[in-house]
Amino acid sequence: MSSTKTRSALATAALTSVQILAVLLAIWVGLRLLGIAWSVVWPLVIALLLTTLTEPPSRWLRNHGFKPALAAATVTVLSLLVVIGALVLIVVPVASQSSELVTGVEQGIAQLREWAAGPPLNIGDDQLTAALDSGVAQLQERVSDIINIGLSGVSTVVNGVVNAVLAVFLMFFFLKDGHRFLPWLRQQLPGRLSEDVPVVAGRSWAMLGSFVRSQAFVGALDAVFIGIGLWLVGVPLVLPLAVLTFLAAFVPIVGALFAGFVAVLIALVFNGFTAALIVLAIILAVQQLEGNVFQPMIQSKGLGLHAAVVLLAVTLGGSLAGIVGSLLAVPVAGVIAVLWGYLREQLAEPEAEPSPEDAEIDEESLEAAQPGD
């Protein structure tokens, strides 16, 4: 073994390791700064996601004579009306049947007690009473914890409302001035960056729009299939439950669980235990198809990512940052793919042009290969 080649290989490996550590350190510092500024970054991300859905109609209005401010204001107001209408479709039918819902819940509790009193559990009323007394005692001991949790929940709701309002205003400004961003960015950056950064930003924006539209399409599929299943079973409030399913599709994991729980509860209250099991089976089947077939296929086609990459990205994002990580995992993976693709394009060696001698040889070979007269 040559000592010179060994030292050269070790030096190259050490230099590569230092460079990798420097890149990882830069990523760690960036994530720390992102966490510090998260209160500003989160509404900015929400506004970008909303803008990807509302930018096409805003662009259409601008192309048909609307001023940018008027087009942005029109689309923003219409978007708010759509959201309010969706909420009305959920709240009004539920409120109109609130008395029946309360009666159904009471009957469901009574049926549950009768079922628990029979075999194989054979739980008597005295045991249920003792269990309730124990639960009340536990609640009394943890009143302070419950109050703190309630205050934390109120704070979370307030922060959510503030973020939503801020996101709506940011969406308006993105719709109004977003088409000027790339030209402005090209003027502000020096040298080669004035070409590279706008190209990457434009491709990332197109990728983000594809992600949000695919997520909306997947949510619509869930709402249609689950709504048809609920209608066939005879569950009431089908339209509110379908709308809730569509809206919950934008919140990974928890959204689907919440919408499914509400649908099963309504089926249990109004249609009985058997219907609730059927609804649960329908929801599980649709969610399995959506999570393992529809969503990876649609998102991988729109983002240029393999379906396995989409699944792994969602799993990794959920393990690292919970619900927010699951929501942002796929677009982050898409941005990384866009950046990597652009780097590959820039770092690829250009194909060498054939020399005149090689061209003459190719022509002679082509003439020799042609059949004679």
TrEMBL record:
Membrane spanning stretches: 36-54, 66-92, 149-175, 223-251, 257-286, 307-340
Main subcellular location: membrane
Top-level division of the source organism's lineage: Bacteria
Region annotated Disordered, chain positions: 350-373
Cellular compartments annotated: Cell membrane
Pfam families on file: AI-2E_transport (PF01594)
Biased composition (Acidic residues): 350-366
Keywords: Cell membrane, Membrane, Transmembrane, Transmembrane helix, Transport
Membrane topology category: Multi-pass membrane protein
PANTHER family in the record: PERMEASE PERM-RELATED, TRANSMEMBRANE PROTEIN
Family: Belongs to the autoinducer-2 exporter (AI-2E) (TC 2.A.86) family.
Name under which the protein is recorded: PurR-regulated permease PerM
Lineage of origin: Bacteria, Bacillati, Actinomycetota, Actinomycetes, Kineosporiales
